[in-house]
Amino acid sequence: MKRVLLVIIGCLIFCTSCIGALQKEIDGGFPDKVTFPKEGGELSLTGEIPIYSICIYYSGNESCHRKKEDGSIEASLDWLTVRAKMGSNTIYLYADPKNNNKGRTLYVDLNGSDGYGEYVDIKVKQ
């Protein structure tokens, strides 16, 4: 009986470590959710994958990145701007201040390769 119990505990520990590794692979080391204060501000996030594409979206509205002359990419929608150096693993988020106490939410979609790479989705609230 003790042997069976040890095998079950060992399997549970192994499965937990696999799930943690899979989650790390899916989110690319970026957080799932970011919250800005009412005053807005700037925030930098560093993950584990290089960024080649940025889109911001909500309820059918979407804005995807534009390439800039300095080699960076930038996407803006409503109150949020997201920038990154092409191929860098750091993104910069800039949120405008809000004028009321009503919460607002946008989603940032990052692509980790130049075409068919790993996708990261970050919920941005204010």
Describe the structure.
Helices cover 21% and strands 42% of the residues. The longest helix has 26 residues, at 2-27. The chain contains one helix and ten strands; from the N terminus they run H-E-E-E-E-E-E-E-E-E-E. The protein is an alpha+beta fold and 126 residues long. It has one helix at 2-27, and strands at residues 33-35, 41-46, 53-58, 61-64, 66-67, 72-77, 80-85, 90-95, 105-111, 119-125. The protein has a five-stranded mixed β-sheet with strand order 1-10-9-3-4, with no helix packed on it. The protein has a five-stranded antiparallel β-sheet with strand order 2-8-7-6-5, with no helix packed on it. The N and C termini lie far apart (53 Å).
List descriptors:
21% helix, 126 residues, five-stranded mixed β-sheet, alpha+beta
> What's the story with the biggest beta sheet?
5 strands, mixed
Number of helices: 1
> Spans with pLDDT under 50 lasting ≥5 residues?
14-25
What string, H for helix and E for strand, traces the elements in order? Answer: HEEEEEEEEEE
Structural Rg: 19 Å
What amount of the residues lies in strands? 35-45%
Helix content: 10-25%
Shape type: globular
Q: Would you tell me the overall average pLDDT?
A: 82
End-to-end CA span = 53 Å
Structural class: alpha+beta
Number of strands: 10
Q: Strands of the largest sheet, in order across it?
A: 1-10-9-3-4
